[in-house]
Amino acid sequence: MITQKQKILVVDDEKSNLDLIYELLKKDYTIIFAKSGTQAVERAITQSPDLILLDIHMPEITGFDTMKIFKNNERTKDIPVIFLTETLDNVTEEQGLLLGAVDYIFKPFNAAVVKIKIHNHLQLLNKMKILEKIALLDGLTEIPNRRSFSERYNLEINRAFRNKSPISLAIIDIDSFKQYNDNYGHFMGDVVLKMIASTIKTNLKRATDFTARIGGEEFALLLPDTASDGAIQLAQEIRLAIYALHIEHSYSKVSNNLTVSIGGISFIPTSKNQSDEYFKLSDLQLYEAKNKGKNQVSWKNL
User: Fold this and answer.
1) Which residues are catalytic?
2) In the CATH hierarchy, which fold is given to the domain comprising 146-301?
3) What does the radius of gyration of the chain's CA atoms come to, in whole angstroms?
């Protein structure tokens, strides 16, 4: 497996400095150059570097002003920045750190120090990304958790509102799961949750389709750019695929196999601030499926 090199954007108006840093880092990293603050912003947005080395003293736009632009842009605000400078007093150092810089590298460059600082900050970034990924996954099923769902849900609601595009939302609940746990044991209950999560995930059609475990035996299904016909069809396919697992459930009043109920809605958001209301409406459809006898899909097109 080929590991992709991490990308570093180096911003300096002096070609000699760019050349020197390139020679120091080219073996281990992919280097992107910019000779001005304006160029740096454009390349940071389009290239998404892992780290930015930013000269403080540049014509037109200073490093500090460029940093402010980075921090005010959703695409660049979380990219760590190390300032490059020849001199640094206490006031300037404080100003840079308050703007969000993670460190300083001094000119003329000390090759060993440059390499060590960059290595350490990128290692820290990697560890933070791993921790962030873990924090967004459900520990048992290894699919996204409720926090991850909330972030994705709000993002997709806002996008659908802007584009006036349809979106579908569903809640999937395992029927009589308490009885299953009580009679087959919590270990087997955990095995079932993993199987259900895997089955839902396997049946998703597109990379943009999203599922998460949002409660004990509840899963959410989020389908951007999907109207009711496509969403209902997918929900039914998931319901039937879970039934086809033939997981014995002799204590269910619905079937001898474990089943799920699914409630969902399809809509074009009329506001960015109604995400809770849409979720409640989806939940009502789940109750409708339960009240009608379970092991079925109940759907509403708003």
Assistant:
1) 217
2) Alpha-Beta Plaits (3.30.70)
3) 26
